[in-house]
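Sequence only, no structure available. Ideas?
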Amino acid sequence: MGKNIYMKTLQILRSSQLRRTVLIAVIVGTLLTLVNEGREMFLGVVTIGITLKIIFNYLTPLVVANLGWFFSQKGTSHD
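Reply:
I predicted one. Tokens follow.
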């Protein structure tokens, strides 16, 4: 089981898989940022709290996309 998780993690880090999930994160993160923090950004009121929210707007879809792919690979050893 541990080796299987290790192999799946390596597959996530492969450029083709990571490229797909980063693209998803950029698109979804940008939309989330514009919807949730757009007003503050355009008013120039960007605090450390808003900066952290923006970072999480990008990290959340990246993690979700990778976990979705990871769990969809149950029992397979290839992409």
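The CA atoms of residues 31 and 54 lie 11 Å apart.
Hope that gets you unstuck.
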